[in-house]
Amino acid sequence: MISVHDAARGSAVGDLATFRTELHRCLSARADALFELADAVLCADGPVRSLPALSLVAEHRRGHGALYDALGAGRIDVERLRTVVASMPMPRAADGRIVLAVDVTCWLRPEAHTVPERILCHTYGRGKDQHIGVPGWPYSFVVALESGRSSWTAPLDAVRLAPGTELAAVTAEQLRAVVDRLITAGHWQPGDPAVWVVMDAGYDAARLAWLLRDLPVRVLARMRSDRVLRRPPGPWIPGPKCGRPPRHGSEFIFGDPASWGTPDVTTVTETRLYGTATARAWHRLHPRLTRRAAWADCPELPILEGTLIRLDVQRLPSGATAKPVWLWWFTGLGHQSGGDNPDPTMIDLLCQAFLRRFDIEHTFRLLKQTLGWCVPKLRDPHAADRWTWLIIAAYTQLRLARPLASDLRRPWERPAPPERLTPARVRRGFRHLRANSPCPAGAPKPTRPGPGRPPGRPNRHPTRRYDVHIATSNATRKTTSSKKKSANPRPRRTG
């Protein structure tokens, strides 16, 4: 038994010990080597720059050969590890609800021609501020956000996007599994506020709202500034020449203020970083869906009504030009959403929840630049998945050790209270916390390295080379184009 005076600190000690014990049980092959590899990531001095260098950390008692063997031949029970991560204490928003954020980040492998299942990943700013496609492995992450300005999140799931998969379908399956695990762990019960899912403009918000309509989930997504939504149709009087009842009303064009009309809700808030923030909302707006792509097999296209929010701020902390942000909040299907329109207080909460979505960028930066997620030059994508979940397990231990860490700051850094420590500062003192936590990994056994390939004998089994997957179909692929390009501008998007 551990005798502590602080109940919160004692709970954190127990949560960290429980997670470390359960993590070792989730490692079904090469368990000791994988467990010590995760400890080496947490206890290394400075950022992880090299995978073999982790074998020199004192907490990793095995050689560099065991390190590569653990990633290549080890096994992780990912489903069990997902359940363990979801059962840990969960961060919540200011009103007590769970807010999830989804985003895709890429593990770039541009020169790895022998690596299978690579996809052209979207990158920005790598060549004169241009959007460039770089081959790599994209991963879809689901994290839980907390309230206030913070760089902490709680990664709950990560899935590598295989070639040919649909992002909306993979994300919907991820969110459904995450919400089910949260309900099973007791983090959400009937009667609690609905779980919010915040996403950026790269997702099909209407499709995700439709796929998750049977869950206690509400979708908040940013929309591009060139979109067009529709209002509900007006009253219809049947007659011999009236035709069928209309499904869509007048257009709401984002780029045409004359089509907006009077907003249903307007809020003005004074902020320290952004100055005056003005939010205007219009209720009961829906996108006009078409029978293509994901909706091709839908027997009847639904009417997905929501609230459109335009957020304008006076200035940005970076000094850049402040552009308006368009948010779409799914409220229901057709006439069922009439009594669920958000009030001014809810509008402000939605805007704050979207601003908290950017905390996931801090998590991606820590995973890549400090914990060394993209450092290993692995060839097997399954080994990359194992390394990804080891990094998630390491980050989860940092989150659980947050109440226990003390500030080991550099001389040029400002002091920070315990509740404001960043993940990188918590990692500096994890070596001291590890001494008081269970370490179920066994001691290494003495062994000798294998003989390897005899000197002077060439490699007669060259590695297979793979092409980068490009999303094209034979039906739409053309070898020659005899039609001249039109000089007209790009047509306006209508849905």
UniProtKB/TrEMBL annotation:
Chain ranges of the Transposase IS701-like DDE domain: 22-286
* Compositional bias segments (type: Pro residues): 441-457
Q: State where composition is biased (Basic residues).
A: 480-495
Pfam families per record = DDE_5
Where in this protein does the record put region Disordered?
Answer: 433-495
Question: Source organism's superkingdom?
Answer: Bacteria
What are this entry's molecular-function GO terms? endonuclease activity
Q: Any idea which UniProt keywords this protein has?
A: Endonuclease, Hydrolase, Nuclease
* Keyword match Iron: no
Classification via InterPro entries: IS701-like_DDE_dom (IPR038721), RNaseH-like_sf (IPR012337)
The name on file for this protein is: DDE superfamily endonuclease
**To which species is this protein native?**
Micromonospora inyonensis
